[in-house]
Write a structure and sequence with these properties.
Blueprint: E1 4-8, H1 14-17, H2 27-35, H3 47-58, E2 62-67, H4 72-81, E3 88-93, H5 100-106, H6 108-111, E4 116-120, E5 123-124, H7 127-134, E6 140-145, H8 146-152, E7 166-168, E8 174-177, E9 192-200, H9 204-210, H10 221-232, E10 237-241, E11 246-247, H11 251-260
Parallel strand pairs: 1-2, 1-4, 2-3, 6-10
Antiparallel strand pairs: 4-9, 5-11, 6-9, 7-8
Helix pairs in contact: 3-7, 5-10, 9-10
């Protein structure tokens, strides 16, 4: 089993910072959106609380929040303002927003040579997906059926194409992550997407160090995974799942996510 999880919460939140005249936010939500810190957007309580509670429900015992040096508000909230008893919360500092692979590197000390899960701070994943990672030790990825993201979640029709499509081998292991649209469904073959719901072993850190910078000048986690597959021989088991993932990338997503989380009980 894997007991450690990492939440990538350092991003700049570029899409969330953009003004949206169609989004109705209260003052606290608007302020959090303006900061770009999506995990701290209040939905009754910070969105990150829902993610951490889901990790605890799935069996994880320790979670590391990868944040920036300017995110002291996160530390203050979890260390002083609330009581946490079901899971231990740690933080790691990514000094500069240099991409998701660089963010994973910031959690190397937390991993301590053990396997660990990695998720985004702007997605609410089903507990069963997180539990599937908790029950494994080897590299793995939850593959979410694109059609289900639209049918069951808050992803708009056509919007699922922005999530990386997965090329899965007949042996059930990952071959590659396409950047955007990826493979086309044919012969009743469903397209599965990556929502950055990973299980890694410490070997991933070497890939994160060696991955070339992307066109945006960042170290990207999907490219690090591809390097690990192609050059290091790592094998990532793909766990297919038809389930909802609540995506909170932009201001327009907040109301829909809040509505769907109304009945979710948070227990930290």
């Amino acid at each position: 089993m894997t007991d450690k999880a990492v939440i990538l919460a350092r991003g700049l939140g570029t899409r969330m910072r953009k003004q949206d005249s169609g989004a109705t936010l209260n003052a606290a939500q608007a302020a959090a959106a303006e900061s770009g810190m999506k995990g701290m957007i209040p939905i009754g309580r910070p969105f990150m609380d829902y993610l951490i509670s889901a990790l605890a429900d799935a069996g994880f015992t320790d979670v590391c929040l990868v944040i920036g040096p300017e995110h002291g508000r996160v530390n203050a909230y979890y260390e002083k303002e609330i009581t946490v008893s079901r899971i231990r919360i740690h933080t790691a500092i990514q000094e500069r927003p240099l991409g998701t692979a660089d963010a994973v590197l910031a959690a190397e000390d937390f991993a301590g040579g053990e396997s660990f899960a990695v998720i985004n701070s702007d997605n609410y994943y089903p507990v069963e997906a997180l539990a599937a990672l908790h029950g494994r030790r080897g590299p793995a990825l939850i593959a979410f059926e694109r059609a289900a993201l639209v049918r069951l979640g808050n992803v708009q029709a056509g919007g699922a194409q922005r999530f990386g499509a997965l090329d899965i081998g007949p042996d059930g292991f990952l071959r590659r992550v396409a950047a955007r649209a990826g493979p086309t469904a044919a012969d009743d073959h469903e397209i599965y997407a990556s929502m950055n719901c990973w299980l890694f072993t410490p070997e991933i850190f070497r890939a994160c160090r060696n991955v070339p910078l992307s066109a945006r000048g960042e170290s990207e986690l999907p490219q690090a995974v591809q390097l690990a597959i192609d050059e290091m021989g790592m094998r990532f088991e793909v766990v297919r799942m038809s389930a909802a993932v609540l995506d909170m990338s932009s201001r327009a997503d907040i109301a829909a996510v809040a509505e769907r989380l109304q009945k979710v009980q948070v227990r930290l």
